Structure prediction request, 173 residues.
Amino acid sequence: MNILVVVDMQNDFISGALGTAEAKLIVNGVKERAENFEGLIFFTRDTHFEDYMNTQEGEKLPVPHCIKGTWGWEICDELKEISETTEICDKPTFGSVELMESIKELSLEEEIESITLLGLCTDICVISNAMLLKAALPETKIIVDGTLSAGVTPISHKNALEAMKMCQIEVIE
Ligand SMILES: [Zn+2]
Prediction:
């Protein structure tokens, strides 16, 4: 079985509080990839609450975003329908322990040939989840599609791809 993980394709990371031009550019490509993917798809959602500014993340990044239930927290319109047919892992921080555990559990029942990650942001949540999955499943091929991911900046995107390559994650550029 092949798995696709669509990371944090939420309004706040595309056109909202932390949106970037690079993020907008990947939306249609991610949609096409998800629609044509043969395998199991997971979505992740960055999920914060009203107390965001009092969290460690809020201290370092004082921009409230992805507050549960708000428009910014929602998966973007283009991907919403498809996300509703998949498992969605809400995560309070960069990496999702729930995602890792779900996939690890699946691997006990069925052989997982590959796990492809893409989405936002390459340098924070894509890399965090790729590293978690690599730790959980060291014999599974972990792929990050850099052409369908975007970073906080183009430079940090590129740096993250290089870091993942060093950790033997297959990077598509
Ligand atoms: Zn966040």
